[in-house]
TrEMBL record:
One of its GO terms (cellular component) is mitochondrial matrix. It comes from Electrophorus electricus. It is found in: Mitochondrion matrix. Residues 23-208 form the 3-hydroxyacyl-CoA dehydrogenase NAD binding domain. The lineage of its organism: Eukaryota, Metazoa, Chordata, Craniata, Vertebrata. This is Hydroxyacyl-coenzyme A dehydrogenase, mitochondrial.
Length: 308
């Protein structure tokens, strides 16, 4: 009986939480925001994607449509009409806007994926805080800024958490769900549940630099650069060694080119500023040189390697 009651309560509260997050606003229609909007729409939520211009939003919608069509090509290989129907159904769940303040009035959750700048994120959330309903949850997809620092621009620190997705969002299963000191248990539970509803695997994280994945990954990537700088191995050998010896799908230099050298530098510089004595966070002259030369990786055609 006790089990039954507990089970029913759990099911009810989970249903209530599902019911709570139906309308989502994603702010930032770049790489991450488009991917987040896509998975939110695929799982049957209505989503408004916000960016600063109609042109950017057209590109976001085009990127989402392209990504959906790639999925459909595989999933509906022998039923192309059903595939097209699926794409249109998902696209119907997505609308766009250049005015965040006007759309959040009717939203259960705001997921922010704009430029990685504390002041700009704070300004955005401070504006939205004044117009969003009381119960709207705010979440940031920041990779390197403390959630608490962004949240303090609002009067809803208890309804504020982190939802850290991975690129490419439709493919990557993981979401790091971040509980800042002021995040309420109810908000945290709602964010965990929402991630599951998206078909992702959430892990719980504290509001500490790099959460789990980047806290381990970025020092590893920096250590690979330092190893190479000291002349202990060529980029090619280090990449092959980690693929064949550690079973990693990409070597560290391949991964650095994929992530973007500027992104890696931005993260490590931020951590170095906070903990200058920590050797894991020390800057690298080689990384700084490549970034100064605008060799940022795949996106600029050259990083540690040349790309086509
Ligand atoms: N790229 C990654 O692999 C990755 C992974 C996880 C988390 N993140 C985080 O996600 C966020 C976005 O990263 P991205 O790679 O998608 O960046 P991006 O540059 O591709 O996209 C950012 C978008 O935000 C828009 N924007 C900027 N200011 C805005 C504002 N005030 N209002 C509305 N839109 C605004 C820009 O026009 C741009 O389209 C960052 O916080 C980043 O740290 C990135």
């Amino acid at each position: 009986m006790a089990f039954f009651t507990h089970h029913v309560l759990r099911t009810l509260s989970s249903a209530a939480r599902n019911a709570a997050i139906k309308h989502v606003t994603v702010i930032g229609g770049g790489l991450m925001g488009s991917g987040i909007a896509q998975v939110v729409a695929v799982t049957g939520h209505s989503v408004v994607l916000v960016d600063t211009s109609e042109d950017i939003l057209k590109n976001s919608t085009r990127a989402i449509e392209g990504s959906l069509k790639r999925v459909v090509k595989k999933k509906f290989a022998d039923k192309p009409e059903a595939g097209e129907e699926f794409v249109q159904k998902v696209l119907k769940n997505i609308s766009t806007s250049t005015d965040a303040a006007s759309v959040v009035k009717n939203t259960d959750l705001v997921v922010e994926a704009i430029v990685e700048n504390l002041k700009i994120k704070q300004d955005l959330f401070s504006t939205l805080d004044k117009v969003a309903p009381e119960n709207t949850i705010f979440a940031s997809n920041t990779s390197s800024l403390p959630i608490a620092d962004i949240a303090r621009a609002t009067a809803r620190v208890d309804r504020f958490g982190g939802l850290h997705f991975f690129n490419p969002v439709p493919m990557m299963k993981l979401v790091e769900v971040i509980k800042a000191p002021a995040t309420s248990q109810q908000t945290f539970a709602a964010l965990l549940e929402f991630s599951r509803v998206l078909g992702k695997h959430p892990v719980s994280c504290k509001d500490t630099p790099g959460f789990i994945v980047n806290r381990l990954l970025v020092p590893y990537l920096m250590e690979a650069i330092r190893l190479h700088e000291r002349g202990h191995g060529s980029k090619e050998d280090i990449d092959v060694a980690m693929k064949l010896g550690a079973g990693y799908p990409m070597g560290p230099f391949e991964l650095l080119d994929y992530v973007g050298l500027d992104t890696c530098k931005f993260i490590i510089d931020g951590w170095h500023e906070v903990e200058p004595e920590n050797p894991l966070f020390a800057p690298s002259p080689l990384l700084n040189k490549l970034v100064a030369e605008s060799k940022l990786g795949k996106k600029t055609g050259e990083g540690f390697y040349k790309h086509n």
